[in-house]
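Lab notebook: predicted structure, single chain.

Context: the supervisor wants predicted structures on file for every construct in the current expression panel, including those that have not yet been purified. This is the next one on the list. No modifications to the sequence; it matches the entry in the shared construct table.
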Amino acid sequence: MQEAITVGMVVFPEFELLDVFGPLEFLGNYPADFQLIILGESTGAVPSIQGPSIVAESALSETPEVGILMVPGGIGSRKFVNNSEALKEIHRLATVARYVCSICTGAGILARAGLLNNKRATTNKLAYTWATSQGPSTKWIPHARWVQDGNTWTSAGVSAGMDMTLALIAEIHGSERAQEAAIYAEYTWNNDPNMDPFAGPAGLLD
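Prediction complete. Output recorded below exactly as produced.
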């Protein structure tokens, strides 16, 4: 039996709730395949932008490694990109992770950590200018629901992280498992990474 992959979801003050809990909803339905852990700069409660807090179970600096590293977005990402110690730990964990993923403006965090250099990536379309400014050498894709470049996966805003996560489950365990997860949640999966209805309204298309 294949050993469960540890999924480390990074949180920081004023993270976006759905960025975190959307992907964890799908992954958490398969405890034999995915073991979830919440990572923070330190352990303890971390408030979301919407108000409710989540408990960081392990400090970034005390986490030896994870199989899948996930970084959400949220308004707090604007401050978190200046946390050099946290970015250093994210970079360390990413170098040994099987997959590195971001949701929404979490791509800006990956970029500032030096993890998107010369890679294709996307991010939240309403925060596109800010997020893309964090990675001048990144090959930003304005029209994409999510982008896979090697073992690095980045999604557009908020709910796009759910579509990306289902695609990641399909990559690891097959599309049938991903469809099963979507059906369990009564979620309509956009399984086309190029079907992005939000780039146009955000003024990102020529």
